[in-house]
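quick q for whoever's on today - can somebody do inverse folding on this one?? i tried earlier but teh output was garbage lol. tokens:
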């Protein structure tokens, strides 16, 4: 019986002894740093002959539903090197879509990328 009473009283004693009247003041120390959840994305767009495509729009979508409804989270245009550099993106999985008109024919590619915190994800997309 003493063991049962002691087992029930111990958490209560701990709780009472840990209570005090100290006020908590906010600090400038941000322990919830979102930078630890950020990665980078570079998408290189290539035509069907594997030549770089400059001036081509690349779209990033958070969900498949957003992709179907064309609700892009981000859009970038490729530079002369054929790359769209998205910079910092929260880690997770994203859908990527690009397309362009080449000699009156529409070519496109859609894929999935995984952004891992602290890493750069390079994705080549080949228009077909």
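ok took a stab at it. sequence:
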């Amino acid at each position: 019986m003493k063991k049962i009473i002691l087992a029930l009283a111990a958490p209560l004693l701990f709780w009472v002894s840990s209570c005090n009247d100290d006020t908590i003041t906010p600090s400038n120390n941000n322990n919830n740093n979102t930078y630890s959840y950020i990665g980078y994305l570079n998408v290189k767009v290539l035509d069907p002959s594997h030549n770089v495509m400059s001036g081509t729009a690349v779209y990033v979508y958070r969900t498949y539903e957003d992709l179907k409804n064309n609700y892009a989270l981000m859009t970038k245009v490729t530079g002369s090197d054929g790359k769209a550099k998205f910079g910092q993106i929260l880690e997770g999985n994203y859908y990527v879509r690009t397309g362009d008109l080449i000699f009156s024919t529409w070519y496109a590619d859609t894929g999935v990328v995984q952004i891992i915190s602290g890493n750069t994800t390079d994705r080549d997309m080949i228009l077909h």
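fwiw The CA atoms of residues 46 and 126 lie 5 Å apart. also Residues 12-18, 21-30 have pLDDT under 50 and may be disordered. so keep that in mind when u check it
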